[in-house]
Design a protein that fits this description.
The protein is α/β, with parallel strands linked by helices and about 250 residues long. About 40% of the residues lie in helices and about 15% in strands. Bound molecules: phosphoenolpyruvate. GO terms for molecular function: triose-phosphate isomerase activity.
Length: about 250
Amino acid sequence: MKFIVVANWKMNPSSFREAKVLLEATRKAAESARHASVIVAPPAIFLRDLKKGYKGKKISFALQSAHFEAGGAYTGEISLAQGKDAGATYAIIGHAERRAAGESNEDTRKKVAAALAENITPILCVGETKRSNSGEYFGFIKEQLHAGLADLSGTALGRIIISYEPIWAIGGEKTMSPRDMHEMAIFIRKSAIEMHGDKGMGIKIIYGGAATESNAAQMLREGDVNGLLVGHVSVNAERFASLLQAIEGAV
Ligand code: PEP
């Protein structure tokens, strides 16, 4: 059994030289992690050269974001085809930081479809900003899922990863409780089944938000998830190596 571990480097590091050093450390750590498939999402500007210089087999590469259009007058954007040409086989879609900058549910719907058309695996991020006891966040997540998964066929569900990321946990050191994640995983599957029938049962779900070397194993054991999306810990080579090591202990 292999867990998916997405290393979202965000807008780090500040130079290609440092990115190469970080990738080399990530490569070494990934090679000794038998139960993890590592996907690195570097800044797009480093992607092609990192991929070219990478000689291993354990790491795949992802875009942190992409436009749904194939080309045109979209200053500053990159297309999924361009990302693929540079070496990406995955694309993060609807990350909380992109949604905060204006990415809508409708955009995620188009991006998921465009990624699948390019044979790129979409990693669709969903998550609520805050929680209250009334459980209104379930409705919010359902809306995000219904939009993001609207254009799929049931069979395409097997080619998509849902990253559940409660925004209130992102950037900290403490995840949500694995028990609450378990509840959310059941809800996500139920929503996928509602939309696409029994195939929804097998949808891949990962957790993101303050995943660290200290809490990764427990989340994987008890959270009912297929892996983790890791932000700030993934750009600290030592901590990321410890996180991958910790995952070995979760198996
Ligand atoms: C994220 O931003 O997707 C994320 C999971 O970040 P962090 O691990 O830093 O909470």
